[in-house]
Write a structure and sequence with these properties.
The protein contains 6 helices and 8 strands. It is α+β, with helices and mostly antiparallel strands and 213 residues long. Helix 1 packs parallel to helix 4 and helix 3 runs antiparallel to helix 4.
Length: 213
Amino acid sequence: MPVAAGVTTSAVRPRGRAVVAWVVGVVAAWGIVAGLHLFGLRLANLWLFGLVITGLGWLVALTVTGVALGVLWRRVGPVRAMALVLVPGLLAPVAIVAVNWTSVYVHNFYRLNRDDFRAAAALADKVTAGYGDRYGQVLPKNLRHLSSMGRAVRIGTEGSGPEGVLLPVWLGTPDGAAGYAYLDGTPGDASFDCFADPCRMRWSLGDGWYWLD
């Protein structure tokens, strides 16, 4: 890139680095918002605090985008500023809203921890506690990350159907739950008792594991 008369190369480089820093800051801010949505099921267990954290993430991302646009508008002109900031600043929130983050989290967490889910399945017959028994039975330490409570709960259908074990990931207030379930049969459209609230299979994950909500 040619340097204008009277402008040294050492002056141009810091300016270029500053532009890159603002663009990276915008992308990073929206990346944090995406991460908050990815772990939204876990954050939901914090109730109001979880909503506050997610709301603050959006507020920070929008603020960083606005400030970056103003700074770069003066430094590199309106056309380049809009191209550098508004493109990621508009595409990112649209993509965040459009993505089914529950599906992304559920499927990828299962894939990443498949061996641990196999180990939990091997213990399924030993789980006899229901949600009324202080929210179920404590899992071994190396498997507690599979459940938000570190516990497994024996569940059944509201009628005839398969039975199994639920590893709750989300807990409702005061009732309801969603999580990974290891079942002794195909659930179909059967309704399960998930912490005094009906839940059904949404996704089949393989090896006898399903997501119920």
